[in-house]
């Protein structure tokens, strides 16, 4: 139990850049408070002390504004950011490394007993105000946009937006996109809440910029090697450490960037 608590607290630092230290997270994050209350109430629920479990969940709701039924099954490193207005139903099942934002509802569409709430796989992200309703499955890596209403299953790594929710991106990651994401992470950039497959001109422009920067670094490296081979002495400039990001010239460039570092998309 204590190990789970530590994981629940430490995962906040990976998903909220505003988190400064563990003391602040423990004392000032209602999403963490609600999850800790749920871990305890779920234990009482499992040993059939259900009234006590419900009372603990109600106390948590009063203090945090987050309502999690004690029967809900929640995996490891679950994070609710901001939290106010989140509702998670009794038969909801949530995998590992899932993130919910404020106003999210994991609700039911039937008054019949049995499985009536969603099942979320691992690494699922649900945006603010989204409603995921019914005994549907959101597969691993699924993303739900803000204020979307999802009533159908979502495939792996897909992004869903709109009312009713529809898939706007269900592409599997190729080598180029994985390399782009790795390079963006190394230089400290994170496109908050966006997916590269979404029809977003800003996100597409950022992808092209990342590819262009990568191509420029490769070209500059080749130029320096050529000048040194001709006996030219160059001043060594200390560059920021990219954490071991390999941008050597033998890496293939993304398909929309020419070998002469010209962006095809501008043609």
What does this entry look like structurally?
This protein has helices at residues 2-15, 22-28, 30-46, 50-64, 175-186, 201-229, and strands spanning 67-68, 73-74, 79-80, 87-88, 93-94, 99-100, 105-107, 119-120, 125-126, 131-133, 137-138, 143-144, 149-150, 159-161, 166-169. Helix 3 runs antiparallel to helix 4 (50-64). The strands form 3 sheets. The chain has a 6-stranded mixed beta sheet. Strands 1-4-7-10-13 form a 5-stranded parallel beta sheet. The model is unreliable at 191-196, 244-251 and 256-267 (pLDDT under 50). The protein contains 6 helices and 15 strands. It folds into 2 domains: 2-169, 3 Solenoid (UDP N-Acetylglucosamine Acyltransferase, domain 1), CATH 2.160.10; 175-266, no CATH class. It is an alpha/beta fold. The protein is elongated. A hairpin with a 4-residue loop joins strand 14 and strand 15 (166-169).
What's the layout of helices and strands?
Layout: H1 2-15, H2 22-28, H3 30-46, H4 50-64, E1 67-68, E2 73-74, E3 79-80, E4 87-88, E5 93-94, E6 99-100, E7 105-107, E8 119-120, E9 125-126, E10 131-133, E11 137-138, E12 143-144, E13 149-150, E14 159-161, E15 166-169, H5 175-186, H6 201-229
Parallel strand pairs: 1-4, 2-5, 3-6, 4-7, 5-8, 6-9, 7-10, 8-11, 9-12, 10-13, 12-14
Antiparallel strand pairs: 14-15
